[in-house]
Amino acid sequence: MEIVYTYTKKRSEYGRQPNFKDGEATVVANFIPDESKAEAHFERDPCVTVAQVHPDVTDSAVNTSPTVSVARGMSHTEGGWPQEIDPEMPEHVHRYRKKKERSEEFQENVERLGNQLEDLIKQNNAIDIYEDYFSGVVVDHSSEPPSSKVLTILKDPHQQECRRQASYVSWYPDGARKLAVAYSILDFQQQPEDMPLSSYIWDLSKPTIPDFEIMTVSQLCSLKYSPKDPNIILGGQFNGQVAYWDTRKGHHAIEVSLVENSHKDPVWDVAWLRSKTGAECLSVSTDGYALFWDIRRLGEPIQRVLLKDKSGGNVHGATTLNYDPQAGPSKFTVGTETGNALACNKGAKNPADIVGNLFPGHHAPVYGLERHPFFSKYFMTIGDWTSRIWIDDLKTPIITTKYYNVGLSTGKWSPTRPGVFYTARSDGVLDVWDMFYKQNDPVLSINVSTSPLSSLQVQQQGRLLACGSKDGNVSIVEVSDGLAEIQSNEKQSINQLLERETKRERNLDQLEKEARMKARKEAKKQTEEPEKNDEMEEKLRTLEVEFFELTRKTDEDEDGDLLSSIETGDGDE
Fold first, then answer.
1. CB-neighbour burial class of residue 77 (10 A; exposed 0-12, middle 13-18, buried 19+)
2. Which region holds residue 489: left if phi is over 0, alpha if psi is between -120 and 50, else beta?
3. 572 pLDDT tier (thresholds 50, 70, 90)
């Protein structure tokens, strides 16, 4: 929050105005040179001297401690009465009113004010002061540089007792200026025994004190407003239980799930499901399960889904969750602690097919996952040092941001601009990406906090962002009109960009498949050639044996014929 102090000074504080006049020379002092010091004197060349006789004035800015203010209402039903009238005596009040109502002055004033009020009422009925005269006109903000400002900082009321982080933020539905914040300490074995467990709902019109306290038996790790009834809040606790609160019925939970039927690890994310009753919800945890609940009966979950992928058969612990009815009322996507994303379908006929495609890619747990608000077949994941954009039917990302020097903690799409998304970094900086103008680098980097950012949520109107940090502060950032209002042809351009990147990735995937197939054929050919060579060598050896056998028999026959001819010749002689 920028604080500027302007230093002002009256003219009279500068001293008396000088009024110099010419006059004769006057000897003020006479100093005779000391010959003994002349030998120690030497001339310095050059000699630079600076003198300033005016006192120095500094301009500094400091962050002062906030003044805690309390808003209280008062009902005033009675006006002022003359001294001789006792307002507690009904007879005196009635007599005084009758007297005033009969006076001509009162009747004239009522008639005059009534005529004025009648004219104003007719104007109010005839003119709609909230009419938008330029609806549908898209304002071009391309020439405006993107900007932002921090409106206020919501501080944890227990910040002096212990340092809790703002682990989850949820905006009030329908664009109201309220938000719920879950405070917790998620570091292993770092929770003090007497740590506060409450989370709070804040009203931006009164940022100094919380508007409502959410009291829990275990610290909250996640919470979400109900889209059908904003008075109901769903929360996931550190001990694995799921609970819900009704702000009209008090600060304590209406109902909490049983420990034996809940998660065995902290509930890192929750989501409301689209249903006729508006009472069904979903929770995920690092214990490897996704549990479906009905808040009217939190004794046990409706369904348990083991997050086990088909290919490797490994069970994945969930760290984040996204449910978007536009992608399918029974479909949801889960980010895991192994750096993968799992596409799941609750409505699958075979229970083994509930967990579908596996999207590997990140080198660290996936901390953020959200589907595109305009094109539901695309979704974004945040993990390690990058953010990646995927499509449902490809196992490789179509867009990957550059690697940061610091880790990313979460990210969100803009609900009003198709090409804008936000990424929160562990050095306290919030990056704004605008793919409509630039794809390689963020268009704006906002220094939100000196502590790592831990949570992020964008208001439904796309203008306000709530950035939670590990020091317990939630900074409310307002972005400029260029980042909140959709631009001309933006939706079509972003759709073409995503389709083009998808086509490119498909071509690369096809080339990779062809290369693998060619490599397999070459390997198979190399394994078949030695077999052919062995057969040829065997044939050659057989032919060689047959040749030598044939030549041996031929030699024996020739030797026998020669011996017979010799014996015949001897007998003749």
1. exposed
2. left
3. very low
pLDDT digits (tens, 9 = 90+) for 174-219: 877 899 999 999 887 777 888 899 999 999 988 889 999 999 999 9
Contacts of 382 (CB under 8 A, 6+ apart): 366, 367, 368, 369, 408, 409, 410, 411, 423
Structure confidence by residue, pLDDT tens digits, 88-108: 888 888 888 888 888 999 999
> What letter would DSSP give residue 474?
E
- Show the CA angle centred on residue 484, arms to residues 483 and 489, nearest 5°: 80
Structure token pair of residue 405: 């020097």
3-state secondary structure of 544: helix
d(CA 396, CA 360): 8
pTM beyond cutoff 0.70? yes
Can you tell me the distance from the alpha carbon of 471 to that of 159, in angstroms, rounded to the nearest whole number? 8
Helix (H, G, I), strand (E, B) or coil at 527: helix
Cα separation, 205 vs 268, in Å, equals 30
Give the closest residue to 490 by CA, choosing from 373, 392, 377. Answer: 373
DSSP string spanning 69-123?
A: --------------TT--TT-HHHHHHHHHHHHHSHHHHHHHHHHHHHHHHHHHH
